[in-house]
Amino acid sequence: MTLKLYANLVSQPSRTVAWVLKVKGVAHELVSVDPGSDFIKSDEFAAINPNRLVPAIKDDDFVLTEGMAILQYLGDKYEWTGPTDLYPKDLKVRAKINEFLHWHHTNTRLFTIDIVRPEIAKKLKTVTPKDLTALEDKDSLIEEKFDLLETFLANDFIAHTDFPTIADYTAYCEIDQLELMGYDFSKYLKVSAWIARMKSQPFNDEIHETLKGFINQFGLTA
């Protein structure tokens, strides 16, 4: 059976998984899941992910949720494990990739949690005091995390490599949305150079079409 990816390409981890599948040419069926849709509320989807979140994959009768776990599973299943592949089996290279993926959850992931989601809430008039506080601190959040990102970029790509890995796609799919909203990262020289490298990866434009439309629809700006 064909691998199924349940995703919404506005979702950052969904976009990451969809992108690497296209880059690696893995045959799969993309099942679009919209927040608030009847499908995401259905028993059918709850059986796939009781949290009712995307991304999720179904590989024959095997179901897996959580974006980072999915990326690691795909890397091993499809053997993206060569010396310069997306998830090399070299012990130290993989350890640096995993280090970033763990760090990501409470660091770069905050760009969505504390900036993008509150900005959407403002547009929908559902903003909370917590959202407003987060937005007041957004500049300091960006400065703190981008300074730290510079340390991950000892070489051209995150995880101290000179080739992209799943860590790079993960990080970029948090930062891309801020750049599309008009944030200027030019003072972060390593990150800016890395962003340019990620933009040159195959299918970058295609994978971001949905996100661009969403940002334009809501008028999200820096």
TrEMBL record:
Record keywords: Cytoplasm, Transferase
GST C-terminal domain sequence ranges: 90-218
Every GST N-terminal domain range: 1-82
Entry's transmembrane regions: none
Alphabetical GO biological process terms: glutathione metabolic process
Entry keyword Cytoplasm: yes
Organism: Peronospora destructor
GO cellular component, one term: cytoplasm
InterPro entries to which the protein is assigned, alphabetical: Glutathione-S-Trfase_C-like, Glutathione-S-Trfase_C_sf, Glutathione_S-Trfase, Glutathione_S-Trfase_N, GST_C, GST_Theta, Thioredoxin-like_sf
Organism superkingdom: Eukaryota
Any one Gene Ontology molecular-function term assigned to this protein's record: glutathione transferase activity
Location of the protein in the cell: Cytoplasm
Protein name: Uncharacterized protein
